[in-house]
Specification:
- By secondary structure, the protein is mainly beta.
- The chain has one domain (about 15-145): CheA-289, Domain 4 (OB fold (Dihydrolipoamide Acetyltransferase, E2P), Beta Barrel), CATH 2.40.50.
- The protein is built from 4 helices and 10 strands, in the order βββββαβββαββαα.
- It has helices at about 65-70, 120-125, 145, 150-154, and strands spanning about 15-20, 25-30, 30-35, 50-55, 60-65, 85-90, 90-100, 100-105, 125-135, 135-140.
- The chain has a 5-stranded mixed beta sheet. A 5-stranded mixed beta sheet has the order 3-6-7-5-4.
């Protein structure tokens, strides 16, 4: 489904949308390496509460972030209905636990509206903007901010 058929624009890009509870978010599809089903993670001692642990992804140790908990929502209770979006940000590869991947759509920078001023500073830090689409709002995640913590750098 195409949210905004302006894919011929210079800034046009493919975005992948996913759900966390009742909210929809999206990231650039170029950052997504793969989407896979939930795999139980091995917990790490003294990790922040939003880091579920690590899994073995074809010989690579992949940290798994409960994206709902990282965004300030109630933590997810992982089950087979959840998905792990494996994303690459720079040289870092991380798995995001999400409720469901919903669609891939085309969008450009001109489609993204600024995060409303009434939002908290933390919200404006984690969200690059909002795309109004077919009666719903899709928030654009700031991947650099989501993963820019000293805990993830370790």
């Amino acid at each position: 489904m195409t949210t905004n058929p302006r894919s011929d624009s210079v800034n046009g890009r493919e975005l992948i949308a996913f759900r966390l509870g009742q909210q929809e978010f999206c990231v650039d599809v170029m950052n997504v390496r793969e989407i896979r089903g939930w795999t139980p993670a091995t917990q790490l001692p003294h990790a922040p509460s939003y880091i579920l642990g690590v899994i073995n992804l074809r010989g690579m140790v992949l940290p798994i972030i409960d994206l709902a908990a990282r965004m300030g929502f109630p933590p997810a209770e992982p089950s087979t209905r959840h998905a792990i979006m494996v994303v690459e940000i720079g040289k870092q590869v991380i798995g995001f636990l999400v409720d469901a991947v919903t669609e891939i759509f085309s969008g450009g920078d001109e489609d993204i509206q600024p995060t409303p001023e009434v939002a908290s500073d933390m919200t404006r830090t984690l969200i690059d903007g909002v795309i109004p689409a077919e009666g719903r709002m899709i928030s654009v995640l700031s991947l650099d901010t989501i993963t820019a913590t000293s805990e993830l750098a370790a």
